[in-house]
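Might I ask for a little of your time on a matter of protein folding? The record follows directly beneath this note:
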Amino acid sequence: MAKSIFTSISDFSKNCVDLDSTKLGTARSSRNWLVEKIEKFENNDEYFPEIYTKENNVQMGSFARKTKIRPLDDIDFIIVFTGNGSTYNTTFNNGEITISVPEKATNLRRLTNDDYTLNSIKLLNKLKSSLQNVPQYSAADIKRNQEAITLKLTSYDWNFDIVPAFITAPDSLQKTYYLIPDGNGKWKKTDPRVDAKRATEINQKRDGKALRIIRLIKYWQKRPIVPGIGSYLIENLVLNYFDTNEVSVTDQYTLRDVFYYLSNSIYSSCYDPKEIQGDLNTLPLETKQKFSEAATKACSCAQNAIDFVAKGDHKAAHDEWKKVFGSEFPDYE
């Protein structure tokens, strides 16, 4: 409990929203240990495809971008394989990608379709079976989903989502991409480096304060009173705000301004910064309207809290922020 609303917002971020700092070191160490194990699979299995260690262990997802909120439930990373002369082709009407495997790439050839195009499901299953042969993971829950192998150990609170990939040669614009499973046996482009670089640069431009606000907004968006619109979309909407707007003098003002921005920007396009997915905002109009209403209410509560603080009434300000963030927001002492 606290008397100052400014202290309460800071404590709420630290104790309820941001990841527990005591777990971060363990999480990163466990991920690195797992990567080292995967890199040794080819030493023990003559049919396991070669890993491209120069580009391996690529971080992706909100954990890597430092926008993840409690609880720490999943850690995503990419395992990059060597293509051994494989080439890729894009079907332009839907962006679907096929990877053609040459005869010399014998281990990848074992995972192809009849036309020697690499089947991403077969590669996922190969990775899954190899993980099951690791003694430490023999009792783990290991599943294949759309684009990753999900590994759940009872010793950790979090899952690992392991995404197999290939890195492309530079295109005409000198861009490279990662090709990852599309869930249907073929492949799709992604580039988590772009997302990570953008988040870092905008955060630095705003004196290291933008990511904390993003995490607070994500916490709010997880509440039942707010329609779920997807973590990646909400993150990019708030990054768009901070790309052109300064952080305000207090958290109250900043949150109020971001809520106001979200209430309007949810109706606009939000383009993928990687220039791969196009418009990220394909929500139905009804969802946009409900989200806008929720953001408008949060903005109103924030303004009420600002007004109460101006009158010296921090208790009433606490009550307003509880309407926004729920019962975990600190009580007024």
Q: What stands out?
A: DSSP finds twelve helices and nine strands in the chain.
